[in-house]
């Protein structure tokens, strides 16, 4: 996003409007001074519009947040998906499923379950439930929004 171009165009419009009725060099100097003094406020206004756009996008995209990140002094919108905490009942654990896994994946799951302080069964159920809940919420966005 190039906010500098937007701010420059705003300055040009303000300058043209302020000079409309006069060709007096003193008036032109005063207009230039006023527009120059407004430059930081114009840039801040552009940044506030970017923040409002981020809030609008975030309100329309479930399961995450939109961040305004400065990159080389220019704002960039980034979508960060938030992990969803899946809920499931442990009252009815009657369904069974056999899954064949590579040995190294089974070892990685056992280690992850141990790190989480869960049994292998609980860890796998939580992971599967979280994945199922996330996929039901709609499309994942893994893009940087540039406007």
Give a verbal description of the structure.
The structure is a single chain. With 147 residues, this protein is an alpha+beta fold. It folds into 2 domains: 1-82; 85-140. Helices cover 56% and strands 12% of the residues. It contains 4 helices and 3 strands, in the order H-H-E-E-H-H-E. It has helices at 3-18, 25-60, 103-116, 120-136, and strands spanning 64-71, 74-81, 144-145. Strands 1-2-3 form a 3-stranded antiparallel beta sheet, with helices on one face. A hairpin with a 2-residue loop joins strand 1 and strand 2. Helix 1 (3-18) packs across helix 2 (25-60) and helix 3 (103-116) crosses helix 4 (120-136). The protein is rod-shaped, with a radius of gyration of 27 Å. The N and C termini lie close together (5 Å).
